[in-house]
Amino acid sequence: MFREWLLDKILRNVKELIPKSVFDFFAPMYYVTLAYVGAVMYGFPSRSMKVIGVTGTKGKSTTVFLISKILEAAELATVSQRSGVASIGSLGFKIKDMEWPNNLKMTMLGRFKLQKFLAEARNAGCKYVVLEVTSEGIKQKRHLGIKFDCAVFTNLHKEHIESHGSFENYYQAKQELFKRTLDIHVINADDTHTKLFGDFPAKRKIFYGLEAGDMRASGLKTESKGTSFDIYGTSFSIKLAGRFNVLNCLAALSVGAMYGIDLPKMKPVLESIKFIPGRMEFIQKKPFDVVVDYAHTPESLEQVYQTLRNSKFKIPNSKLICVLGSAGGGRDKWKRPEFGRIAAEYCDEIILTDEDSYDENPQSIIKDIENGFSRIGTKNYKLTTILDRREAIRIALTLAREGDTVIITGKGSETSMAVAWGKKVPWSDRDVVREALKQQGES
What we know:
Blueprint (H helix, E strand, L loop, with lengths): L1 H16 L2 H22 L8 E6 L4 H17 L8 E5 L2 E4 L2 E3 L10 H13 L4 E5 L2 H5 L8 E6 L7 H4 L2 H14 L3 E5 L5 H5 L5 E6 L5 E2 L1 E6 L2 E6 L2 E5 L4 H16 L4 H9 L9 E4 L4 E5 L4 H12 L10 E5 L10 H12 L2 E4 L9 H9 L11 E4 L3 H11 L5 E5 L6 E3 L5 E3 L2 H14 L1
Parallel strand pairs: 1-5, 1-6, 2-5, 6-7, 7-8, 8-9, 14-18, 15-16, 15-18, 16-17
Antiparallel strand pairs: 2-3, 3-4, 10-11, 11-12, 13-14, 19-20
């Protein structure tokens, strides 16, 4: 531990002494060197395991979660000396039965932390490691020194353009995972950008989807208790809502199939999952629904609203009440009016509030969101601004009546909120909702 701390401190001090223009020029070489130093320091741990990397704009966390559950169930049935599963991403860290939250506000860990985690998974005897691979992580070369056995593509949408400079740079960063993974490729066949990821060579390749693919779902039905579908004669009835979650399940089933697990064995695993933490997670279902979701892109926000709005079990005249922030301060500002437009289209009551504002004025973020409301014609909706997120959630819950739905987006299962001067405030939308519901029930 002291070794990593000392090295990190030395590198930070050296970095601060170098002029930014000079550092930016040498940054790629700097990142590459650190990545391989970390891999050497921990003995290239990925070479002892099967590492599955999941990339895409949306669905990475859920897909990692589902893949891990499928592999864990399969590993429990083995007597191999090396067995067990590790996973890493925005939902948290897991090595076999040990789990802990990701409080770093970083989906893909830095080079040394990532190699250390892989070494710990190796030392614990894990056979598989499932991890989220982000475009920012690849841009900073955090993936180097890792031997990937399988690469998974979920979908591609406009995201992190300000950081990457262009949409082309963004998807090219993600393509690096498939260029470096030579064994197994798992590809979403329904995505409009399938060819950007499906044409790289691999020993084995499988496509999945609702409209096309090798692992294709049919007979899709959405009900109040969840979603059902069929694949090659095996019927699935899952508790997760939305077409996007079916695609996430298909990605996980495809990975399982590539590792020799048949559909009947994977069926009870998926059907036993009640929810994904912070992803369309129902905190309450009666007398009104309260849902927490991470939704951080316009596409994911619209899918969440559509799923909740179109639920067949909703009573007439029920309302959709949303608590909405935006993308983190200083980044992806183009999203904000899009969020406003989508909320105005689907929601009856809209409460704008603070999210991860970082060093940006929360009021300016909200102003950007409001600019999207003008794009909607004469649809009736009620708009309120409450900067205090706790109070915003409380008010949203007081507005709800029987049959209504309160949807709180942006944070999901995150355990902190990023504010000015690099500070992180402990925070949980789920805990705040439970606390407010309890107080509401006692009053």
